[in-house]
Protein backbone atom coordinates (compact mmCIF):
# COMPACT_ATOMS: atom_id res chain seq x y z
CA UNK A 1 0.00 0.00 0.00
CA UNK A 2 2.85 2.36 0.87
CA UNK A 3 4.45 1.75 -2.54
CA UNK A 4 1.22 2.73 -4.29
CA UNK A 5 0.57 5.99 -2.46
CA UNK A 6 4.12 7.12 -1.77
CA UNK A 7 4.64 8.91 -5.13
CA UNK A 8 1.25 10.60 -4.75
CA UNK A 9 2.00 11.77 -1.22
CA UNK A 10 5.38 13.10 -2.34
CA UNK A 11 3.77 15.01 -5.19
CA UNK A 12 1.17 16.45 -2.83
CA UNK A 13 3.83 17.64 -0.39
CA UNK A 14 5.79 19.28 -3.19
CA UNK A 15 2.65 21.09 -4.37
CA UNK A 16 1.79 22.29 -0.85
CA UNK A 17 5.31 23.59 -0.31
CA UNK A 18 5.25 25.42 -3.64
CA UNK A 19 1.93 27.12 -2.85
CA UNK A 20 3.20 28.04 0.60
CA UNK A 21 6.36 29.57 -0.85
CA UNK A 22 4.34 31.58 -3.39
CA UNK A 23 2.01 32.86 -0.65
CA UNK A 24 4.99 33.87 1.47
CA UNK A 25 6.58 35.72 -1.46
CA UNK A 26 3.30 37.53 -2.12
CA UNK A 27 3.11 38.59 1.53
CA UNK A 28 6.65 39.95 1.30
CA UNK A 29 5.73 41.89 -1.84
CA UNK A 30 2.83 43.53 -0.01
CA UNK A 31 4.99 44.81 2.84
CA UNK A 32 5.50 48.58 2.61
CA UNK A 33 8.95 49.49 1.37
CA UNK A 34 11.18 50.87 4.09
CA UNK A 35 12.24 54.47 3.41
CA UNK A 36 15.88 54.74 2.47
CA UNK A 37 18.14 56.45 4.98
CA UNK A 38 18.72 60.05 3.92
CA UNK A 39 22.00 60.75 2.19
CA UNK A 40 23.32 63.53 4.37
CA UNK A 41 25.35 66.22 2.61
CA UNK A 42 26.70 69.03 4.86
CA UNK A 43 27.88 70.97 1.77
CA UNK A 44 24.29 71.22 0.54
CA UNK A 45 23.30 72.27 4.04
CA UNK A 46 25.87 75.07 3.93
CA UNK A 47 24.50 76.34 0.61
CA UNK A 48 20.93 76.31 1.87
CA UNK A 49 21.95 78.02 5.11
CA UNK A 50 23.91 80.72 3.32
CA UNK A 51 21.79 81.29 0.22
CA UNK A 52 18.32 79.92 0.94
CA UNK A 53 16.17 78.92 -2.03
CA UNK A 54 14.63 81.87 -3.85
CA UNK A 55 12.56 79.61 -6.10
CA UNK A 56 10.61 78.41 -3.08
CA UNK A 57 10.64 81.70 -1.23
CA UNK A 58 12.91 80.18 1.41
CA UNK A 59 15.21 82.83 2.92
CA UNK A 60 18.80 82.17 3.90
CA UNK A 61 19.13 80.98 7.51
CA UNK A 62 22.13 83.29 7.86
CA UNK A 63 19.86 86.33 7.76
CA UNK A 64 18.52 85.48 11.23
CA UNK A 65 21.09 83.11 12.72
CA UNK A 66 24.28 84.80 11.57
CA UNK A 67 27.36 83.68 9.68
CA UNK A 68 28.31 80.13 10.60
CA UNK A 69 25.38 79.93 13.01
CA UNK A 70 26.72 82.64 15.32
CA UNK A 71 23.67 84.82 15.67
CA UNK A 72 24.21 88.44 16.65
CA UNK A 73 20.48 88.99 17.22
CA UNK A 74 19.76 88.20 20.87
CA UNK A 75 16.24 86.95 20.16
CA UNK A 76 17.55 84.35 17.71
CA UNK A 77 19.59 81.41 19.00
CA UNK A 78 23.20 80.70 18.21
CA UNK A 79 23.24 77.42 16.30
CA UNK A 80 26.96 76.92 15.67
CA UNK A 81 28.26 73.71 17.22
CA UNK A 82 24.82 72.61 18.36
CA UNK A 83 24.28 68.84 18.33
CA UNK A 84 23.30 67.55 14.91
CA UNK A 85 20.59 65.23 16.18
CA UNK A 86 19.10 67.95 18.37
CA UNK A 87 19.01 70.48 15.52
CA UNK A 88 17.32 68.00 13.22
CA UNK A 89 14.77 67.10 15.91
CA UNK A 90 13.89 70.76 16.46
CA UNK A 91 13.39 71.36 12.74
CA UNK A 92 10.98 68.42 12.75
CA UNK A 93 9.28 69.66 15.92
CA UNK A 94 8.61 73.03 14.30
CA UNK A 95 6.36 71.20 11.83
CA UNK A 96 4.26 69.73 14.67
CA UNK A 97 2.19 71.14 17.55
CA UNK A 98 5.14 70.44 19.86
CA UNK A 99 6.87 73.64 18.80
CA UNK A 100 4.66 75.97 16.84
CA UNK A 101 6.43 79.24 16.06
CA UNK A 102 5.19 81.57 13.28
CA UNK A 103 8.51 82.10 11.50
CA UNK A 104 10.29 78.79 12.00
CA UNK A 105 7.20 76.64 11.52
CA UNK A 106 6.65 78.23 8.12
CA UNK A 107 10.19 77.62 6.95
CA UNK A 108 10.64 74.19 8.54
CA UNK A 109 7.60 72.96 6.64
CA UNK A 110 9.25 74.09 3.40
CA UNK A 111 12.34 71.96 4.05
CA UNK A 112 12.50 68.34 2.98
CA UNK A 113 13.62 65.77 5.54
CA UNK A 114 16.94 65.50 3.72
CA UNK A 115 17.45 69.26 3.84
CA UNK A 116 16.79 69.29 7.58
CA UNK A 117 19.50 66.68 8.00
CA UNK A 118 21.89 68.58 5.71
CA UNK A 119 21.57 71.90 7.52
CA UNK A 120 21.97 70.24 10.92
CA UNK A 121 25.01 68.29 9.71
CA UNK A 122 26.70 71.49 8.57
CA UNK A 123 25.91 73.58 11.66
CA UNK A 124 27.45 71.05 14.03
CA UNK A 125 30.79 71.58 12.26
CA UNK A 126 30.79 75.33 12.85
CA UNK A 127 32.80 76.87 15.69
CA UNK A 128 30.65 78.63 18.27
CA UNK A 129 31.74 82.06 19.40
CA UNK A 130 31.71 82.46 23.19
CA UNK A 131 29.23 84.62 25.03
CA UNK A 132 29.54 86.36 28.40
CA UNK A 133 27.57 86.84 31.58
CA UNK A 134 26.54 90.48 32.02
CA UNK A 135 24.89 90.84 35.41
CA UNK A 136 27.42 90.61 38.24
CA UNK A 137 24.62 90.94 40.82
CA UNK A 138 22.99 87.64 39.83
CA UNK A 139 25.96 85.57 38.69
CA UNK A 140 26.20 83.65 41.99
CA UNK A 141 22.48 82.87 41.98
CA UNK A 142 22.69 81.69 38.38
CA UNK A 143 25.72 79.55 39.21
CA UNK A 144 23.95 78.02 42.22
CA UNK A 145 20.86 77.11 40.18
CA UNK A 146 22.85 75.73 37.26
CA UNK A 147 25.16 73.60 39.39
CA UNK A 148 22.93 72.67 42.32
CA UNK A 149 19.33 73.46 41.41
CA UNK A 150 16.79 74.89 43.86
CA UNK A 151 16.17 72.17 46.45
CA UNK A 152 13.20 73.85 48.17
CA UNK A 153 11.38 74.09 44.82
CA UNK A 154 12.42 70.66 43.59
CA UNK A 155 14.29 72.22 40.67
CA UNK A 156 17.17 69.95 39.61
CA UNK A 157 20.61 71.23 38.68
CA UNK A 158 20.70 72.27 35.02
CA UNK A 159 24.15 70.67 34.85
CA UNK A 160 22.65 67.23 35.51
CA UNK A 161 21.26 67.22 31.96
CA UNK A 162 23.18 69.95 30.13
CA UNK A 163 26.63 69.19 31.55
CA UNK A 164 28.98 71.11 33.82
CA UNK A 165 30.20 73.26 30.93
CA UNK A 166 26.82 73.49 29.15
CA UNK A 167 27.85 71.10 26.37
CA UNK A 168 24.58 69.15 26.58
CA UNK A 169 23.91 65.59 25.41
CA UNK A 170 23.35 64.90 21.68
CA UNK A 171 19.68 64.64 20.61
CA UNK A 172 18.32 64.77 24.17
CA UNK A 173 19.69 67.98 25.65
CA UNK A 174 21.01 70.99 23.74
CA UNK A 175 24.28 72.75 24.16
CA UNK A 176 23.60 75.88 26.23
CA UNK A 177 27.04 77.41 26.70
CA UNK A 178 27.38 80.88 25.22
CA UNK A 179 23.72 81.15 24.27
CA UNK A 180 22.06 84.59 24.25
CA UNK A 181 20.48 85.48 27.59
CA UNK A 182 17.31 86.82 25.97
CA UNK A 183 16.78 83.66 23.95
CA UNK A 184 17.27 81.33 26.93
CA UNK A 185 14.86 83.36 29.09
CA UNK A 186 12.29 83.36 26.29
CA UNK A 187 12.47 79.57 25.92
CA UNK A 188 12.09 79.02 29.66
CA UNK A 189 9.03 81.26 29.49
CA UNK A 190 7.58 79.21 26.64
CA UNK A 191 8.16 75.98 28.57
CA UNK A 192 6.49 77.52 31.62
CA UNK A 193 3.47 78.60 29.59
CA UNK A 194 3.25 75.22 27.85
CA UNK A 195 3.64 76.83 24.44
CA UNK A 196 6.79 74.84 23.80
CA UNK A 197 6.06 71.21 24.60
CA UNK A 198 8.32 69.28 26.96
CA UNK A 199 6.95 67.57 30.06
CA UNK A 200 10.37 67.65 31.67
CA UNK A 201 11.20 71.31 31.03
CA UNK A 202 7.64 72.52 31.62
CA UNK A 203 7.62 71.01 35.10
CA UNK A 204 10.98 72.61 35.92
CA UNK A 205 10.21 76.05 34.46
CA UNK A 206 6.88 76.28 36.31
CA UNK A 207 8.76 76.10 39.61
CA UNK A 208 11.11 78.97 38.73
CA UNK A 209 10.56 82.71 39.18
CA UNK A 210 11.35 85.19 36.42
CA UNK A 211 14.35 86.38 38.44
CA UNK A 212 15.72 82.84 38.73
CA UNK A 213 15.29 82.26 34.99
CA UNK A 214 17.15 85.46 34.16
CA UNK A 215 19.96 84.62 36.59
CA UNK A 216 20.58 81.14 35.23
CA UNK A 217 20.29 82.35 31.62
CA UNK A 218 22.96 84.98 32.27
CA UNK A 219 25.24 82.41 33.90
CA UNK A 220 24.78 80.01 30.96
CA UNK A 221 25.78 82.74 28.50
CA UNK A 222 29.23 82.84 30.08
CA UNK A 223 29.85 79.10 30.07
CA UNK A 224 32.59 77.81 27.76
From TrEMBL:
Heme c 1 binds at residues 61, 64-65, 104. It holds the Pfam family Cytochrom_C. One of its GO terms (molecular function) is heme binding. Heme c 2 binds at residues 158, 161-162, 201. Residues 1-27 form the signal peptide. One of its GO terms (cellular component) is periplasmic space. It comes from the Bacteria. Keywords: Electron transport, Heme, Iron, Metal-binding, Periplasm, Signal, Transport. This is C-type cytochrome. It comes from Duganella rivi.
Amino acid sequence: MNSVFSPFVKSLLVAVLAVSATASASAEDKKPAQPAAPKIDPAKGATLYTDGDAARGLPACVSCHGAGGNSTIVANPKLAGQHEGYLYKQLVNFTTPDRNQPVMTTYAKMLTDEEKHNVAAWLVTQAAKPGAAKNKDTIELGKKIYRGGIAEKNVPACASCHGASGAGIPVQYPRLSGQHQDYTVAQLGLFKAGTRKSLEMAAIAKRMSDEEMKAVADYVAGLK
